[in-house]
Design goal:
- The strands form 4 sheets. Strands 3, 5, 6, 9, 10, 17 and 18 form a 7-stranded mixed β-sheet that branches.
- Helices cover 28% and strands 25% of the residues.
- It has 2 domains: 179 residues, Quinone Oxidoreductase, Chain A, domain 1 (Alpha-Beta Complex), CATH 3.90.180; 138 residues, Rossmann fold (3-Layer(aba) Sandwich), CATH 3.40.50.
- By secondary structure, it is an alpha/beta fold.
- Strand 1 and strand 2 form a beta hairpin.
- The chain contains 11 helices and 18 strands.
- The radius of gyration is 20 Å and the shape is globular.
Length: 346
């Protein structure tokens, strides 16, 4: 089968388009095999290619974290989906037996794994995953909507709804509105009645974010976003900050956060080492939360939003699988607005 692979970690020069990958075998129990149709790119793909601590890849490692496909075959004990169903894929694999899984906190599973990172991923003609990691979608969900959906939407849902518990009356600041998680966070926050602030280094992206519903926009080039937010709010700040940038924005995020505010983060694309004045933390009684991917309940909820037509992310561009390296170049450059998608099926 065809696949986008790496045989070592480092730069994008490690990425190869392969035609001779052995197709995955269907498991004896609880598994489904998919004919993958499309898969969106995520920053996680770049981190996997660069190399992650404790993660070892073997030659011809298939990358890619999520996507959608058509069920080709199921194990005899699977009844939740059947051959021919269109399904979206949950990127996180959990053991289903530990205390965290039993409590419904699947991303905290002691054996948690991620497609493309710990096991072969989605950038291939075929994929085998547990049936618990797919949900059927009806014909009313377009191929384009399914192609842009996945990890970004579920990550944003867990951050905004499960963790930060955004409601009407909240003021939410979201960094870097060109990416999928940020755009999903914007749509989710607006749907829950919040007033939403977004940042970007591009005025064009900010204009497009306004068209998506953003209430306040800030070009973060050369300014302190925290000070700008406080100036516009009479020094009160916002109630929620969504920051997945990390080192480059952390102090500004805290500067924008009002008393009793919540900061939620799912990553640190600019660096992982952070410095915080603990006096500001306890004096302002901030809550700082981490968030990773999503539970079964998060996945069900966000798929429900997709089916209802309330969570359709924009697509920046589409590349055929064999041009996956070009797609990753575009993602790394950061010039996109919306999801970059690999077209795999016909």
């Amino acid at each position: 089968m065809r696949a986008l692979t790496i045989s070592a970690t480092g730069s994008l020069d490690c990425v190869e388009f392969s035609r001779d990958i052995a197709p995955p075998a269907l498991g004896a129990s609880g598994s489904v095999r998919l004919r993958m149709q499309a898969a969106p790119l995520n920053h996680l793909d770049l981190w996997t290619i660069r190399g992650l601590p404790g993660v070892t890849v073997t030659p011809k490692w298939v990358i890619g974290a999520d996507g959608w496909g058509i069920v080709d075959e199921v194990s005899a004990d699977v009844t939740s989906v059947r051959p021919g169903d269109r399904v979206v894929v949950n990127s996180g694999l959990s053991c289903r037996n530990c205390e965290y899984c039993n409590a419904g906190a699947h991303p905290l599973c002691v054996k948690f794994r991620v497609l493309g990172e710990h096991v072969h991923g989605t950038f291939a003609d075929a994929l085998v995953v547990p049936a618990t990691n797919v949900r059927a979608i009806p014909p009313s969900v377009s191929d384009a909507a399914a192609s842009a959906f996945g990890l970004a939407a579920m990550t944003a849902w867990r951050m905004l709804v499960t963790r930060a518990q955004v409601t009407a009356g909240d003021e939410v600041l979201i960094w870097g509105i060109g990416g999928g998680v940020a755009q999903a966070a914007l749509l989710i926050a607006k749907a829950r009645g919040a007033r939403v602030w977004v940042t970007s280094g591009s005025d064009e992206k900010l204009q497009r974010a306004r068209a998506m519903g953003a209430d306040e926009v800030i070009n973060h080039t050369g300014i302190d976003v925290g000070r700008e937010v406080r100036a516009r709010t009479g020094k009160r700040g916002v109630t929620v900050v969504v920051d997945s940038v990390g080192a480059a924005t952390w102090e500004q995020s805290l500067g924008a956060l009002g008393r009793g505010g919540r900061l939620v983060t799912c990553g640190g694309t600019s660096g992982h080492a952070l410095t915080t004045d603990v006096r500001r933390l306890f004096w302002n009684q901030w809550t700082i939360m981490g968030s990773t991917m999503g539970s079964d309940a998060d996945f069900d909820a966000v798929v429900g939003e997709l089916i209802a037509g309330r969570l359709t992310l924009p697509i920046d561009s589409t590349f055929p699988l064999e041009r996956g390296r070009e797609a990753l170049d575009r993602l790394q450059a950061g010039s996109q607005f919306g999801k970059i998608v690999l077209q795999i099926g016909a």
